[in-house]
Amino acid sequence: MLETFQFNLSTRIEFGNGQVNKLGTYVRELNGSKVMLLTDKGIKSTGIVDKVTDLLEQNDIQYIIYDHIKPNPRDKDCNEAYLLAKKENVDLLIGLGGGSSMDTAKAVGVLLTHGGEIKEWYGLNALKHKITPLICIPTTAGTGSEITFFSVITDTSTKLKMNILDNKVAPEIAILDPELTLTLPPSITASTGMDALTHAIEAYTCNLSEPITDALALYAIDLIVKNLSEAVRNGSNIEARRNMLVGSLIAGIAFGNSDVGGVHCMAEALGGLYDTPHGVANSMLLPYVFEYNIPSDIEKHANVAKLLGVLAEGKTNEEIAYEGVLKLKELANELDIPKMRDLENIHVKDFEYLAEGATQNVSASSNPRKATKEDYYNLFMRAYYEN
User: Distance (Å, rounded) from C-alpha 8 to C-alpha 52?
Assistant: First the structure.
């Protein structure tokens, strides 16, 4: 745990059933006269986009839609959306959907206010001033991007995921409406829920954790573990959906103020090269990195294991922690998360390249146990070949 720390939350949170209906009020508060709604075609097919545009029309707010966003958002798409927003004199952005929509919206906001190419703004605290006012509306319970102050973008020339890390990229307002998650299919509910669980676990165990993030992360782990399976089995259970959205939000606040670690280093390498959905990648890798990291802080990993359902009586913390690895694998199996070897586009021949990418990730130094390229290579091999 850090001896000195700071805690930031730059985004105003508006949470509750039906909260999206106040969208017009929030747009007016931010003096938006021309809005760009950034989303993807999958969200559009659910009717949620129509609901949002109806709200904008009811409030006489002009808008345009950019719906070409893909998983693992790409620099080229960010630039395309930016050029359209600039042409249309957009002065407010709305990111609607999962992390890809919200991260793209952040990147567009950077380009509208700073110009140039998105690669010029990768890194820590590179921005000169706040981005274009941004409202984020998550439709998944997983990424926490609606309140984080970074944006993860795939560099198509290198096939690596790059980060814009700056308080000035944070959304102005996050609207979290559990009712918007009711249409989320079971498979997406499962993978995004495991993404949120990974955020909470890594926020708690990484070497940049501090007392506030520890408290948030533990609460988020407990809430997610108690509600994820029900949300997957019974998507109409609004209470489970609500709790998952709260858990994802709190996990986002936690890792946004500490960091993630080796799971994300590996998952982002997979996503950059193969376009593997981020939640799926995290789910496949979490048990193996969790096990690798146990020696770094046995007590913390035991605390996580207890929240995962490991019975502690008569066992040492080390025994409890290693049983947590089994619980993570059982949960992924229960939720029908695919195995790495079942994804046809993943090839063992690429693991050395992926391992190198993991070591170069911005969060590599935050992993609680030092991991070399060889360590990451071995973890990829284990995740691929073991059950």
Answer: 29
> Distance (Å, rounded) from C-alpha 293 to C-alpha 186?
30
Q: Rounded to two decimals, what is the model's pTM?
A: 0.95
Cα–Cα separations (whole angstroms), residue 163 to 126, 141, 306: 11, 21, 33
Signed CA dihedral, 82, 87, 91, 96: sign only: negative
| 170 in Cβ contact with 147 (< 8 Å) | yes
Per-residue tokens: 243: 């709790």
Q: Is the Cα torsion angle 200, 43, 14, 238 positive or negative in sign?
A: negative
Q: 């969200």: which residue's tokens?
A: 43
Per-10-residue mean pLDDT of the chain, 387 residues long, equals 84 97 97 96 91 97 95 92 97 96 97 94 92 97 94 89 93 98 95 98 97 98 98 98 98 96 97 93 97 98 98 97 98 96 94 97 96 98 91
Residues 197 and 194: their CA atoms lie apart, in Å, by: 5
Cα(194)–Cα(276) distance, integer angstroms: 14
Coil, helix or strand at residue 94: strand
User: Residue 84, Cβ neighbours under 10 Å: how many?
Assistant: 16
Whole-number Å distance between alpha carbons of 324 and 306 = 7
- Residue 118 DSSP class: G
